[in-house]
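Notes from hallway chat w/ T.B., transcribed later so I don't forget. T.B. wanted the structure written out for a chain they're using in a teaching module, and asked if we could keep both sequence and structure tokens in one place. Agreed to drop them here.
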Amino acid sequence: MSENTLRQPLQFTFAHNNFNVIDLAKSLAFYQEALGLVETGRKETEHFTLVYLGDGQTGHALELTWLRDWGKPEYDLGDNEFHLCLRVNDFDAAYKKHKEMGVICYENPGMGLYFIADPDGYWIEIVPHRM
């Protein structure tokens, strides 16, 4: 990493909104009908399903998350029903800064993401900028 890179301020850009849903099929149908969004991607794991929605042209605008293990400590998002996702130009520097601030409320290094909480308890997901 160059010295100039270290001097650049952290830059955050909007990635998407995320909603935790109880009935994935029902929510998916609603957003497709009400907002005209289409499914642009999907990721399924043993513990959760992520469905990405967009206008089919400009990328992901909305993410629906359905958690199979709701309530288990490592997957319990508490009362968090909605959060923003931001991309950052220097993920490692942002992670270090937020760790020092003590605002990280959930982290998953294996997936390359972590969450910070604002003063009102809303969660902001931080992910690296992807080219």
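Follow-up for T.B.: The helical segments are 3-7, 24-35, 91-101. Might be a good example for the class.
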